C-alpha cells in the first residue's frame, strides 16, 4: 500500500492528538482527580499486573535456553570430575540407560546411568546415588565406574553432615574420597569395604565415624548395583 | 476461694547469706567430684582446670574494668570463679589450653557481662559456653581421654601433661575413646542392639565415675553427695533436681520396659553424661531458673524431658546442655504464668480477704 | 563535584545515619542468612542494590498513577517482579554466583527495606532523588553485608573474600587472602548465632562512633559560642 502525503499528514495529526491527550491525562492534577475512582484503581492494578507478567514472560522465554544450558554444564562438570574426559568421545547426557535400583537402598527406585563411550564402545558408566542414612540426613554422591567395575572417582554433591567433622567427605575439605579410586568389588573383600574401625580399608575421621561409615556402605551398594547390571550396561 | 500457699518472700525477711557465702558453699559441694575427676584424668586435667578458672577471673576483671567499676569486690564474690569451675568440669579433661580460654571468654563476656553482670543473664553462662564450644570445635570437644589417674605408671607426668595441654595429643587413638552415650549412639547406626553394645558396661564403675567423660561430670556418687548437702544447707531447693531426675528415670524406664534392646535403661541414663552435674549445680542456678516452687517443678521436669528426647532421638549423644539452655529461655514465660504470691495477696495479685474476728 | 544539600543528606542517611541495618534495623533475615563470607555478603548486597534502585525509580516514575488505597499491592507486585527478573537473569548470566546466592535472591522479596523505601521515600519524591536514595540505601546495605561477612569469615575460617573470583571473575583473585594461616576455625561464627553476635558488635561500634562524633560537635558549638562572645 502506498501512502500519499495527505494520509501521512492526517496520521501525524492524529498521533499528535493522541499524544496531547495522553499528556493531559498523565498530568498530575488530572491523575489526582482520577485516583479516588474505583474504575481507575482497578485499571491501574490490572495495568501493572499486565506489565509485570509481560516483562517476566519475555525474560523467561529469552533465557530459558541459556538456563537449561547452564544446568547441563553443571551436570557435565560433575560427570567430568568422576569420569576422565579422555575416556569418552560422546555426549554422556544423551547416552543414558535407566536401571531399577530399589533393592540397593540408595534412595531411588530407578537410577539414570550415564554411559561414557569411545568409538561406540562403553568405557565407563556414571550415576548419582544417595546414602540415605548419613549422620544428619542424606548424602548425595556421584560415582564413575570403568567397564571392569573399578571406581574412577566419587564426589559428594550435597550433604548436611556436621561442619568441621563429617564434611571431610567433600573433596574441598580433605582428600579422603580420593581413596576410592581404583577400588572395586574384586580387589577388596566385602569385609574390607568398611571403615578401619569396623575392620575395613578406609579411614574414619577424628570425632566422626558415622558419616564415613555410611558413605563407604553406600558406595559399596552402588558398586553392587553396577555389578548386577554390568552386562546390560557395557553391552554395546 | 483463696489458695493459702506460702508467700515466696517478704520485704521484712533478711537474707542470712551473702552472694559470696553461697558461691563458696557451692564450690565446697563441688569439691569432692572435682578432686576425684582431677585425680582420674591426671595432670593435663589439672592444667585445663587452672587455665579455665584463671581466665574466667581475668575476663571478669577485664569487663569490670571496662565498665569503670572497682574490680576487687566483684572478683571476690566468687561468681566468676564458680562459672569457670563449672565450665571446666564439663570440658573434655585433656582438651587443649585454648578451649578453656575461649570457653571462659564466651561464658563471662557473652554469657554474663553483656547482659549486665551477675543476676542479669538469661542463660547459664557455663552451659552457654559449653554448647558454643561443642558447636564450634566438635573434634576437640568430643575427644575423651582414657582414665589415667595421677601417680599411676602409664599416666602422663607433669612435663608430658604440658605437651598435651599446650601442643595437643600426638596419637589420639592410643589415649582416647568414646563415652558410654557416644558408643551407644554410634553402635545403633551399625544396627547393634543394647545388650551387645553394653556387654563391657560396669554398673559400679559408672556410678563412681570411673569412666570416660567430661572432667568431673561422671561421678554420680560425689556429685550426688554434694547436691544433697546443698539441699540440706538450703542453698538449693529440691524441686528442680528431683523433678529432672525423676522425669528422666520415668521416661527411660517406660521406654526401656517396652523395648529393652533399643532404649537405654534408667540406670545408664542417670549415671551417664552431664545429668547429675546439670540437675544439682547448673539447672538450679538462681538467676536462670523460675522463682516459685511450682515453676521449678515445671522447669526441672521439662529439662528432664528434653534431655531424654535429645539423647534418644537427637543427633547429639548428650542433650543436657541444650536442654538447660532451652529451658533457660522459657524461664521468663514460666515466671509469667506461675507467679510468686506476694504477702497479703493471692497469686493473681488481689488482696486477701481478712477473716472477720 | 559538589552535591547539593538534598543529595548529600540522602547519601548520609543511606550510608550511615539511617542505614537500613544500623539505623532502621531492617532486612535482618537476608543479612544473617548470607553473611557467612564477605563474598556472599558482597553478592547479596549488589543484587539488593540493583533491585532497590530499580524499584525506587519505577515507583517514583509511577507515583502519580498509584492510588494510595492500593499502593501496597502495587509496590509488592513491582518488587516481586523485579526480584524474579534478577533471579532469572542471574541464573542465566551469572550462574556460579547464582549457585551460591540462588536461595537468597528470592529472600530479597521479603526484604522489608525495599517496601520501606518505596513507601517512605520513592512514592513521594521525584525520580532522580528516588534513584539516588535507592543507590545510597543499597550501597549502605552492601557495606554492612560486606563488613559483617568479613568479620564472620575472618573469625570463623581465617580467610577473607574466599571464592571472590567466582563472583567477580578471575581478575579479582587477588582479593582472596588468608588472614590467619593454620587457623583452627571457629565454627560458631559461620553459623546463625555468630551472625547475631557479630551484628551486635558492629552496631555497638556504630553507636560508639556516633557518640564520639556528637561529643566533638558539642565541643565545637561550645567553642564557637565562646569565641563569638
How would the blueprint of this fold be written?
The complex is a heterotrimer of chains A (236), B (357) and C (229).
Chain A (H helix, E strand, L loop, with lengths): L4 H21 L2 H7 L3 H45 L13 E5 L9 E9 L2 E14 L2 E10 L4 E8 L51 H19 L1 H4 L3
Chain B lengths: L18 H49 L3 H6 L2 H12 L6 H14 L14 H12 L1 H4 L2 E2 L12 H10 L4 H4 E2 L2 H9 L5 H4 L5 H6 L11 H13 L6 H20 L7 H6 L3 H8 L10 H21 L6 H18 L20
Antiparallel strand pairs in B: 1-2
Helix pairs in contact in B: 1-3, 1-4, 1-7, 1-12, 3-4, 3-5, 4-5, 5-17, 12-15, 13-15, 13-16, 16-17
Chain C lengths: L4 H13 L10 H7 L3 H24 L9 H23 L1 H11 L6 H11 L4 H31 L1 E2 L3 H5 L8 E2 L8 H4 L1 H37 L1
Q: What does the oligomeric state look like here?
A: heterotrimer
| Strand line-up across the major sheet of chain C | 1-2
Main beta sheet strand tally, sense and closure of chain A = 5 strands, antiparallel
> How many separate domains of chain C?
1
Form type of chain A: elongated
Instruction: Give the SSE string of chain A.
Output: HHHEEEEEHH
How many helices of chain A does DSSP assign? 5
Distance between the termini of chain C: 36 Å
Q: Which parts of chain C are unreliable, with pLDDT below 50 for 5 consecutive residues or more?
A: none
Indicate the proportion of strand residues of chain A. Answer: 15-25%
Give the low-confidence spans of chain A. Answer: none
Q: Would you tell me the structural class of the helices and strands of chain A?
A: alpha+beta
Question: Major β-sheet of chain C, in short?
Answer: 2 strands, antiparallel
Tell me the total number of β-strands of chain C.
2
Strand content bin of chain C: under 5%
If you average the pLDDT of chain A, what whole number results? 87
Strand order of the largest sheet of chain A: 1-2-3-4-5
Q: What does the average pLDDT of chain C come to?
A: 85
Please tell me how large the radius of gyration of chain C is.
Answer: 20 Å
Tell me, what's the shape of chain C?
flat
Amino acid at each position: 500500500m502506498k501512502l500519499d502525503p495527505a494520509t501521512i499528514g492526517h496520521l501525524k495529526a492524529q498521533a499528535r492528538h493522541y499524544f496531547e491527550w495522553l499528556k493531559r491525562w498523565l498530568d498530575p492534577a488530572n491523575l489526582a482527580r482520577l485516583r479516588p475512582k474505583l474504575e481507575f484503581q482497578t485499571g491501574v492494578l490490572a495495568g501493572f499486573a499486565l506489565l509485570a507478567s509481560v516483562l517476566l514472560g519475555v525474560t523467561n522465554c529469552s533465557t530459558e535456553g541459556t538456563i537449561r544450558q547452564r544446568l547441563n554444564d553443571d551436570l557435565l562438570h560433575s560427570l567430568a570430575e568422576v569420569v576422565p574426559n579422555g575416556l569418552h568421545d560422546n555426549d554422556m547426557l544423551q547416552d543414558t540407560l535407566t536401571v531399577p535400583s530399589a533393592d540397593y537402598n540408595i534412595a531411588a527406585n530407578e537410577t539414570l546411568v550415564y554411559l561414557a563411550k569411545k568409538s561406540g564402545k562403553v568405557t565407563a558408566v556414571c550415576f548419582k546415588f544417595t546414602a540415605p542414612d548419613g549422620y544428619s540426613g542424606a548424602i548425595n554422591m556421584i560415582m564413575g565406574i570403568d567397564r571392569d567395575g573399578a571406581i574412577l572417582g566419587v564426589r559428594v554433591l550435597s550433604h548436611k553432615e556436621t561442619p568441621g567433622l563429617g564434611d571431610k567427605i567433600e573433596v574441598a575439605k580433605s582428600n579422603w574420597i580420593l581413596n576410592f579410586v581404583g577400588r572395586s568389588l574384586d580387589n577388596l573383600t566385602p569385609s574390607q569395604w568398611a571403615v578401619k574401625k569396623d575392620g575395613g580399608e578406609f579411614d574414619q575421621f577424628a570425632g566422626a565415624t558415622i558419616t564415613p561409615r555410611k558413605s563407604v556402605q553406600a558406595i559399596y551398594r552402588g558398586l553392587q548395583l553396577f555389578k548386577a547390571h554390568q552386562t546390560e550396561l557395557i553391552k554395546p | 476461694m483463696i489458695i493459702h500457699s506460702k508467700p515466696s518472700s517478704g520485704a521484712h525477711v533478711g537474707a542470712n547469706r551473702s552472694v559470696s557465702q553461697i558461691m563458696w558453699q557451692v564450690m565446697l559441694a563441688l569439691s569432692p567430684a572435682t578432686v576425684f575427676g582431677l585425680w582420674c584424668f591426671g595432670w593435663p586435667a589439672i592444667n585445663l582446670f587452672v587455665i579455665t578458672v584463671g581466665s574466667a577471673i581475668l575476663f571478669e576483671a577485664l569487663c569490670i574494668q571496662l565498665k569503670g567499676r572497682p574490680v576487687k569486690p566483684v572478683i571476690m564474690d566468687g561468681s566468676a570463679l564458680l562459672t569457670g569451675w563449672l565450665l571446666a568440669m564439663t570440658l573434655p579433661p585433656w582438651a587443649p589450653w585454648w578451649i578453656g580460654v575461649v570457653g571462659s571468654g564466651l561464658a563471662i563476656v557473652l554469657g554474663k557481662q553483656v547482659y549486665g553482670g551477675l543476676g542479669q543473664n538469661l542463660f547459664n553462662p557455663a552451659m552457654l559456653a559449653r554448647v558454643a564450644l561443642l558447636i564450634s570445635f566438635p573434634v576437640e570437644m568430643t575427644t575423651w581421654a582414657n582414665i589415667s589417674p595421677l601417680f599411676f605408671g602409664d599416666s602422663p607426668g607433669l612435663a608430658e601433661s604440658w605437651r598435651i595441654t599446650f601442643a595437643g595429643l600426638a596419637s589420639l587413638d592410643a589415649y582416647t575413646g568414646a563415652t558410654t552415650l557416644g558408643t551407644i549412639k554410634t553402635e545403633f547406626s551399625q544396627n547393634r542392639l543394647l545388650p551387645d553394645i553394653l556387654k563391657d558396661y560396669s554398673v559400679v564403675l559408672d556410678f563412681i565415675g570411673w569412666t570416660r567423660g567430661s572432667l568431673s561430670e561422671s561421678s554420680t556418687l560425689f556429685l550426688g553427695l554434694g547436691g544433697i548437702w546443698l539441699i540440706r544447707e538450703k542453698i538449693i531447693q529440691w524441686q528442680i533436681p528431683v523433678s529432672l531426675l525423676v522425669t528422666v528415670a520415668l521416661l527411660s524406664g517406660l521406654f526401656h520396659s517396652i523395648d529393652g534392646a533399643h532404649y537405654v535403661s534408667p540406670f545408664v541414663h542417670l549415671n551417664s553424661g552431664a545429668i547429675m552435674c546439670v540437675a544439682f549445680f547448673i539447672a538450679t542456678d538462681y538467676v536462670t531458673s523460675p522463682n516459685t516452687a511450682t515453676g521449678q517443678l515445671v522447669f526441672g521436669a521439662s529439662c528432664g524431658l528434653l534431655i531424654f528426647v535429645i539423647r534418644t532421638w537427637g543427633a547429639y549423644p548428650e542433650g543436657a546442655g541444650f536442654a538447660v539452655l532451652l529451658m533457660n529461655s522459657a524461664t521468663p514465660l514460666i515466671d509469667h504464668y506461675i507467679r510468686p504470691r506476694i504477702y497479703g495477696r493471692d497469686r493473681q495479685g488481689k488482696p486477701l480477704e481478712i477473716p472477720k474476728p | 563535584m559538589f552535591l547539593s544539600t538534598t543529595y548529600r543528606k540522602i547519601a548520609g542517611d543511606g550510608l550511615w545515619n539511617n542505614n537500613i541495618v544500623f539505623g532502621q534495623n531492617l532486612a535482618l533475615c537476608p543479612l544473617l542468612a548470607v553473611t557467612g563470607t564477605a563474598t556472599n555478603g558482597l553478592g547479596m548486597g549488589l543484587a539488593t542494590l540493583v533491585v532497590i534502585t530499580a524499584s525506587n525509580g519505577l515507583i517514583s516514575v509511577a507515583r502519580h498513577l498509584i492510588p494510595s488505597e492500593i499502593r501496597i499491592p502495587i509496590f509488592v507486585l513491582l518488587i516481586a517482579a523485579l526480584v524474579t527478573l534478577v533471579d532469572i537473569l542471574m541464573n542465566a548470566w551469572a550462574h556460579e554466583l547464582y549457585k551460591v546466592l540462588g536461595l537468597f535472591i528470592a529472600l530479597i522479596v521479603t526484604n522489608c527495606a525495599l517496601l520501606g523505601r518505596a513507601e517512605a521515600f520513592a512514592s513521594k519524591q521525584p525520580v532522580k532523588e528516588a534513584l539516588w536514595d535507592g543507590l545510597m540505601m543499597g550501597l549502605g546495605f552492601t557495606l554492612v553485608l560486606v563488613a559483617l561477612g568479613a568479620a564472620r569469615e575472618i573469625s570463623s575460617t581465617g580467610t577473607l573474600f574466599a571464592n571472590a573470583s567466582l563472583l567477580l571473575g578471575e581478575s579479582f583473585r587477588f582479593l582472596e587472602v588468608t588472614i590467619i594461616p593454620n587457623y583452627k576455625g571457629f565454627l560458631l561464627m559461620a553459623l546463625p548465632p555468630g551472625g547475631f553476635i557479630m551484628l551486635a558488635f558492629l552496631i555497638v561500634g556504630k553507636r560508639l562512633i556516633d557518640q564520639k562524633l556528637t561529643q566533638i560537635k558539642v565541643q565545637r558549638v561550645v567553642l564557637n559560642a565562646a569565641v563569638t562572645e
